[in-house]
Structure formats: C-alpha cells, structure tokens
C-alpha cells in the first residue's frame, strides 16, 4: 500500500506559522485531558504528542484553520486532524455535561430570576 502524505498546497509545500492568542495553561490543560483519554482507552501511540495535538485542535477550533493545511505542515493526514478535532470536542462536551461548575448557566439563571413572594 502506498502512503500519500504529500503537502496540501502543492509540491513546494507552503507552510506558515500562526500565533494563537491562548494561554499556556489552556494548552497544558487540554493536553492533560487528551493524555488522560489516551491512558483510559489504552492507546499505545499517536502520530504526535498530546501537546501538539492540542495545539492543532485549538488552531482548527479557534482560528478556523483548514485541517488539510495543518496536516500538510505537520506530516500527518487530513483525516487524522479531523478525527482528533472530533475526539477533543467529544471530550470537552462530556466534561461540560458531567461537571457543572459554580458558573453554569442554570445556576446563573437561578440567581437572576425573581421569585414571587
């Protein structure tokens, strides 16, 4: 089977860097969430470490980067980046669903509502 890992933009492979306006704490938190998920599903390896996966996923979600452009610059396939985005969105959704915080919308709405006396 032939691997087809050529750059998306053409043979010369135009790659550019982007600066994400994110804190390192956000990136480290998401990388830890990914690390925990990989440990839970007993994944032996990924093409990139969890910190780089977190940066790629945040670039797709925050800056609306095309997965194909990011994949070509990092030597992985476009479908791999798309799969990682879906996995991380699922992890974040599961965390939001199971761990309500003090600032959850239901609590904020409950504090702001008038009660009839």
TrEMBL record:
It comes from the Bacteria. Keywords: Membrane, Transmembrane, Transmembrane helix. The chain crosses the membrane at residues 20-38. The keyword Transmembrane helix applies. This is Transposase. It comes from Streptomyces vulcanius. The lineage of its organism: Bacteria, Bacillati, Actinomycetota, Actinomycetes, Kitasatosporales.
């Amino acid at each position: 089977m032939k691997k087809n890992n050529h750059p998306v933009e053409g043979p010369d492979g135009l790659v550019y860097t982007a600066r994400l306006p994110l804190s390192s704490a956000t990136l480290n938190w998401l990388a830890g969430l990914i690390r925990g998920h990989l440990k839970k599903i007993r994944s032996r390896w990924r093409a990139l470490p969890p910190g780089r996966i977190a940066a790629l996923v945040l670039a797709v979600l925050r800056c609306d980067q095309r997965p194909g452009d990011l994949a070509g610059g990092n030597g992985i396939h476009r479908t791999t980046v798309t799969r990682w985005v879906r996995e991380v969105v699922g992890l974040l959704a599961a965390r939001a669903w199971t761990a309500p915080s003090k600032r959850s919308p239901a609590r904020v709405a409950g504090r702001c509502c008038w009660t009839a006396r």
